[in-house]
Amino acid sequence: MSSRSVSVGSPGRVAFTAQEKRNIIFYILGIMAYKFALESYNGTIKALALDRLPKSERFTYTGYLDGFNQAAQCIGSIAVAPLVRRFHTRSVLAVAVFVFALISSVGMIVEGVAGGRIIDGNVIDGKWDSRGVIPMFVAAGFSHGTVELIRRIIPRDIVGGNVIKLKKMDALVHIFYEVAGTAGAFFATFAALKLGKAFAPVVSPFLFILAAFLWSRIAVEAEKDQTLSAYEDRQRENLFVAIGSAFAAFGLAIYEGGRIIFTNRRFTWLIFGYSIPLVLHRYLENGLGANYAKLVLKESAYGSIITGGSNFGELCGAGFVFVFTYLIKTPLPWLRLDAATLSIVWVMHKFTPASTGLTPLATAWVLGAIFIPVSMGWAAGDVSLAAFIQSHVSRLTDTNPKVSPLGAVMSFLYVTYIVIYAIISPVIGSWLDSLPDATKNQDYFFWIGGVMFSACGVLIFLSTFWPKGSFAFNPTLEEDYPEEEDMEENVAHIRDEKKGEMLDDMF
Length: 507
Fold this sequence. Notes:
By secondary structure, this protein is an all-alpha fold. Helices cover about 70% and strands about 0% of the residues. The chain is built from 18 helices and four strands.
């Protein structure tokens, strides 16, 4: 049994044990390497697709590229449950990111074999079918989905179920995660301009391998790991049967989640409050930002600069939620902020190097800065919504005992996002390809960046008035949806801590 370390000077303040500190260090270093590599790879692979795919079907193909990748992430996440029951969680995480390293190197190998070279600073493209980038990116989605889900459950392996420890660890991890993501996105632009799009993710395989090594060094206590991994079931269940069962259970979870959402007023609005904003945010980065770089700035590599600004906005949004956790008790004010900031995207309709007198590179930096408040609003809403869903779904009683209510609701919302994005991404891409060159930019950014995003913002804003007691400027919903007593005690306990000491006692 592991001992808990509690600081003497401040009653109730829980400190990390020496082993937990060691594990947190390895985990944060690993996640920074992973996020930097991920942003570098994703940014350059999208730029490669925009440059190399046939012009007549360029945006249709990139739409399928994004849609299929998101679907693959969903499938990869489903496979996590049977894998972590059979193997150590940290081992599954390390292997998944190592496979990601191998996949991320395929494009560079193909480019080199096909004659791609860098001679005296000049990039010579290889001769190969550029549509091959689609299966590469889809394959990367399977590993991406596995890693993204595991990294959300492994903190419990590291610090156990202590609420205060989890909050502290999550806050610190999120800060370093977004810092690394911002740096990785900016680096992707530099690498693409110097090495060419195909060779630009040269550091990604090495950083993925580094992340795999660091995560493999996490020493989880035996009793915690056995509780999560269920060693006793490993020899009794065939892995492929387990994966098949996981897909069946996932289908049941989606059905149960839909039933909960559409039969409870407090959750019905989450489709517009959670799934739709997530679709818009992904398309803002993967669609509008990338297409703006190609169509307006004439350099697809600049899309990573815009994405970097968006990542920094996510960091700011998470920070605002962390600071105002106890002042703003529900996600509704943050969602209203998100809905309002969506109108900022209108600027893409008229914001060009010619209209501002800036160079294309400077324009990319300015647009990245403009994206900061847009992504800040989304991230603030997303982070606060997760806590809202967890706290309210946990009190449901009329649910299927075979399915976790929280898992069911989150599965339904996630699949809703995947399905919508997988449909609209290629549809918008095909429509964009069909537009005449003379009006392509104006029509695309007017109807998608302007009309569509603003209309969705109105729907999101209106949906925040659907729950009972939501008409206040800063609603609490306590009268209609009272919190559990033990949850109130936890909140009161955390509120009494000095905010300035939240990170001081991490290490």
